[in-house]
């Protein structure tokens, strides 16, 4: 019983810290219409501003996450959350145009690289093997809680706080996550010294199961973060074109869409347990792809139909999330788990960078004031998850049994 309570406390602590560290996650996506006007941005430039966060992530995560095989991941988490706070404070005080915004938002992405996967590694290192898969599902689902709460508080505070003060509040929350983990999570003991990680990288890169999960995560993040980066802007465009109570508060709809990731992600992992991971992933990823195309073609429908459709689509794109991450963790030996997570995160969040940019390029190509431009953006999202589905089908080595 004591062990169970300890595991629950550990999972809750890291989930709460994740929520706090992600308070600023939706700032650029929520404020993109404002920044577009303030800094005279094209859709492609807006896509870069949304995607640069994940470019910072993928540049840092191979080093930071692979280090968790050699040093306590808690130390990396504390450094990453501190950097997030610094980057958000820097954006609040110094961002005066696209160039400065790109630099500070890129640094915020570096901070996420030091918190999300290192936090997962620090948590699973402190959990019994029997609880690691479900602990992972709750932790990855909490990413959706943190993102949803970020959209929500930003929407509700826009009339009260300037955008600079909103960034400052998010910086404070990141520092609170540092204090929480520092006080509650005990430092780990010294890890066994190894000769080096080259052997780990060679083994990981030769493992078709790991590569399949990485490719699936690439497509998942392409779709997910492309959608989140442009959802508020899309709803704002829809409202300007045809004012409706359903789209009057786009941040609220974005928050709800993001909250749906939580039950969808957890249920997705349970589905993978019941029906087999490969079978589950090969079924839900095409569903998400089809819904992206349906949303792209539904731009002219009533908001009363469009908003529920967007919410269903938002849920569908998260049915594979925890199933992918838990599959990687459970099918990788503990000694190489950090290196595998580093590769998984790098490839996966490369999709998180490409998705917003691809959406913006498609939008610019056909016109941001043209319904076909937004349709093209959603087609770009469908292409992303299609790539992920292809990666899962590329190899038959992904476990077909519950794990």
* Broad shape: globular
Low-confidence region ranges: 397-403
- The CATH architecture assignment turns out to be Up-down Bundle
Q: Determine the number of helices (DSSP H or I, runs of at least 4 residues).
A: 17
Mean pLDDT: 86
Q: What number of domains?
A: 1
Reported for the largest beta sheet, the result is: none
Terminus-to-terminus distance: 24 Å
Task: Chart the SSEs and their pairings.
Elements: H1 2-21, H2 27-38, H3 43-67, H4 73-94, H5 98-113, H6 116-125, H7 129-157, H8 163-184, H9 198-206, H10 208-241, H11 250-259, H12 261-275, H13 277-297, H14 303-316, H15 321-330, H16 337-366, H17 371-394
Written overview of the protein:
The protein contains 17 helices and no strands. It has one domain: MFS general substrate transporter like domains (Growth Hormone, Chain: A), CATH 1.20.1250. With 403 residues, it is mostly helical. The protein has helices spanning 2-21, 27-38, 43-67, 73-94, 98-113, 116-125, 129-157, 163-184, 198-206, 208-241, 250-259, 261-275, 277-297, 303-316, 321-330, 337-366, 371-394. The radius of gyration is 20 Å and the shape is globular.
Write out key terms for the chains shown.
disordered C terminus; mainly alpha; Growth Hormone, Chain: A; 80% helix; single chain
How would you summarize what this structure contains?
The chain has helices at 2-21, 27-38, 43-67, 73-94, 98-113, 116-125, 129-157, 163-184, 198-206, 208-241, 250-259, 261-275, 277-297, 303-316, 321-330, 337-366, 371-394. The radius of gyration is 20 Å and the shape is globular. The chain contains 17 helices and no strands.
